[in-house]
Amino acid sequence: xxxxxxxxxxxxxxxxxxxxxxxxxxxxxxxxxxxxxxxxxxxxxxxxxxxxxxxxxxxxxxxxxxxxxxxxxxxxxxxxxxxxxxxxxxxxxxxxxxxxxxxxxxxxxxxxxxxxxxxxxxxxxxxxxxxxxxxxxxxxxxxxxxxxxxxxxxxxxxxxxxxxxxxxxxxxxxxxxxxxxxxxxxxxxxxxxxxxxxxxxxxxxxxxxxxxxxxxxxxxxxxxxxxxxxxxxxxxxxxxxxxxxxxxxxxxxxxxxxxxxxxxxxxxxxxxxxxxxxxxxxxxxxxxxxxxxxxxxxxxxxxxxxxxxxxxxxxxxxxxxxxxxxxxxxxxxxxxxxxxxxxxxxxxxxxxxxxxxxxxxxxxxxxxxxxxxxxxxxxxxxxxxxxxxxxxxxxxxxxxxxxxxxxxxxxxxxxxxxxxxxxxxxxxxxxxxxxxxxxxxxxxxxxxxxxxxxxxxxxxxxxxxxxxxxxxxxxxxxxxxxxxxxxxxxxxxxxxxxxxxxxxxxxxxxxxxxxxxxxxxxxxxxxxxxxxxxxxxxxxxxxxxxxxxxxxxxxxxxxxxxxxxxxxxxxxxxxxxxxxxxxxxxxxxxxxxxxxxxxxxxxxxxxxxxxxxxxxxxxxxxxxxxxxxxxxxxxxxxxxxxxxxxxxxxxxxxxxxx
Length: 658
Known about the structure:
Residues 1-22 have low confidence and may be disordered. The chain has 29 helices and 9 strands. It has a 3-stranded antiparallel β-sheet with strand order 5-7-6. Strands 1-2 form a two-stranded antiparallel sheet. The protein has a two-stranded antiparallel ribbon with strand order 3-4. Helices cover 58% and strands 5% of the residues. By secondary structure, it is mainly alpha-helical.
């Protein structure tokens, strides 16, 4: 295929070259430096303050802790009113296990890091895990483009475009499974391209392709729709005899079969069915009208992919350039992208819930970037178009790196104006019906109303933080003396006097980049100093108490208290379980250990003093009980039970129990 530019003929670089040689050592070195550069950018913009904030990530992490500690998959109940899970003896996460397995491996070194650095510093291990996974996915994009015949420049542009100009960047600091999904699907494609060189194919590489694709499905079940497209492409790429193709494909199908067997066995173990995946509670619905979901995911100014990954604007041009010379690749991309986009567009929450951009279709962004790379390779205008679109993508995704997207959604709740929307497919808990209209909460309306777009909201809030426009955040700082205003953000108003969430306020005022928090000498804010491992172990203690396994509950609460020594709740629960077991002196000792901590929250110390006083009273140590009750009164001068406590203290002094 030749292209003519103003009288000059240029031969188009082949997008597919089955006889291509392995990259040279120099090329490998350049890719290595580019990989390290992307890792450095990720590292400098990484934060651990956004993990464990959304139920999806909590369930996956709790599963990882259960797997690491006990070799089990059960977690504490998240939805206690759920009738399906209420009738089961064990509660399991409905999400894929791929991310949990990776996190379980990372958990091996978390206690060591926590002991060395303290204050929740082990939390950074999990964003660092995502950093490596996402950077490897970007390297996989470059590898696929190279395998398809492009030069280093095009590969480098594709790698940078995916890594920094799409939602892949902000998701490095979030505990969703999209980074791992992206790595699996692009890794599977790279293995396929390597395994189908020449006429007969390579069984080893195709086996790896099957394993990568199987692990993608293991991470998220809906990715099973990619398997037919991959299989068809493998068959079309190999041009030898049918017997040779079947022989080469044997490893591919065996690895897929093994993954399928493991998944079905785990489904049976968790949910009592080979095909059940945990969405049996009324949410497993493909109820969104197809065109509504497709428009929302691809074109809408609220969640559309063309706004969050502007490189995708070049897709029609890329399709035109690749057809008809590279029809095999177009069949692959169509067989992968179309079914996946359609399935997720039909999902009741097509936007992916609390997310940055169209989260559900992030795993297929690597395919789009690889496809678009044809534009850069074959056109002299390709580099200019890349810089134009990638610059826009860089700016857009930097918004979510510098400000956590949930801050905006939390703020628009401060004045909960409901929006009348003619929207079908949403569950009933997201709206109320009045006068024949559906009135939606503002966070749901932000997926449909352009004026409430998170993009506009992020720009508005960052303007306030960085430039004091249209309002200053000084009033959010303790002791500022500035009354919180009500600020217009058409079509709503936000009354900041209603903002009592310290976490949201903290995120709004700072990006909380990990390396900056590490280098500054001041202590971390308390809600960042709790290690996820410790919080999850506390939840495992709740699970053990529910199962009446008090010995395991003691183990879980004790480990949680060791990981979070300045957090009172694990100590309270630990001492309560030990008291119930009859180990009363040990219960007192463990509670006393909390008071040795140099930093304690006043309300938590009050709870510990009250419980310790009750223990002393039950043990007959009246002087110690009175002392703890009096300290409690000092710490809580406005307590509602102040008079009854004073009377109890007086009675203990005058008439101590015998």
